[in-house]
Amino acid sequence: MKPLFAKGPSLGVRLLVLVVLSVALMVVDARFALLKPVRSQMSLVLMQTYWITDLPQRLYQGVASQFGSRTELVAENEKLKTENLLLQGRMQKLAALTEQNVRLRELLNSSALVNEKVEVAELIGMDPNPFTHRIIINKGERDGVVLGQPVLDARGLMGQVVELMPYTSRVLLLTDTTHSIPVQVNRNGLRAIASGTGNPERLELRHVADTADIKEGDLLVSSGLGQRFPAGYPVATVKEVIHDSGQPFAIVRAVPTAALNRSRYLLLVFSDNRTPEERANDAAQAQEAEDKQNGIAPIVPATVPKPAFVGPPAPAPAAAAPVATPVKPAAHSARAAKPAATKPPVATPAAKPPAAAPATTRQREE
């Protein structure tokens, strides 16, 4: 009798096929870039998933903000007013320093940016793998984000963009074990390499000499030597320095200045990619436009005429010197007069014979 339901492959065979297929997909994704377009398209669908999963928290924050007490709002308002006043006082000094820096750069014929262009991004997801420190932000390739772009928060550097999608990007944090950044001690300029440890609260400085001038509390800033991160941004603060007399390098541990586990709003830094010639031209055009606006006539460099070519200098008339010698006694005038009359003094074309030469010759003949 024929059974009503045909039997398919057993569950073990199905599991084995799925496992082999999964391993094959992971190998292809790790070794090749064939699945990159598929991942980009899937990110469009996952974007809606991120928005839906984040909706309850947004609703909670909206309701909490609506029912906040008036006393807390008044106290927070007073605190913000005080901070705003202090920041405005600091801003006045920073504005003067910025203008002075711009003038000095113009004098040096340099148009490097004083402040980099930044764009605000929001954190929308985190990598569930506990061994990798990666986050997802809501800015992607359509927003002008590029691979390797630095990311920072209000306190310091956080990491860099390592994967691009149309509307989202994946950021590798500083504390990941595969990440390193060149830094320098803000106090004395000592250079080092800060590497991630897998702990979101700790960085390590590799290959620091045991006699190096570094101590607890030193601020580490980006040095800009890797051509990836802009110079001058805070990275970490030295927490512990261990010296071992038997080891050539000291053990230096630092705490990141950025709130890697708490920051929700981030900044994407757009560096200046212009060539030095383009920067110089832009600076010259900006200076010319400013001079026209202020009514200052442009300075035209004076042109100096080139000297005409007159050839090599004529040699000194060495042969003309014997002509002006004093007259010898009459006893020897007969012999001396004859070669003087037949062989005139040799002179270069540029030198003229002295006017007294004919008179002296005539005196000898007499």
Report on the structure:
The chain is an alpha+beta fold and 366 residues long. Among the domains are: 52-113; 118-270, Thrombin, subunit H. Helix content is 35%, strand content 21%. The chain has six helices and twelve strands. The protein has a six-stranded antiparallel beta barrel with strand order 1-2-5-4-3-12. The protein has a six-stranded antiparallel beta barrel with strand order 6-7-8-11-10-9. The chain starts with 10 loop residues before the first helix and ends with a helix. Mean pLDDT is 76; it is low at 110-114, 300-304 and 317-366.
Q: How is this fold's topology laid out?
A:
Blueprint: H1 11-31, H2 36-66, H3 70-107, E1 117-126, E2 134-137, E3 150-152, E4 157-164, E5 169-173, E6 180-185, E7 191-196, E8 203-209, E9 219-222, E10 234-242, E11 249-256, E12 265-270, H4 276-294, H5 333-342, H6 357-365
Antiparallel strand pairs: 1-2, 1-12, 2-5, 3-4, 3-12, 4-5, 6-7, 6-9, 7-8, 8-11, 9-10, 10-11
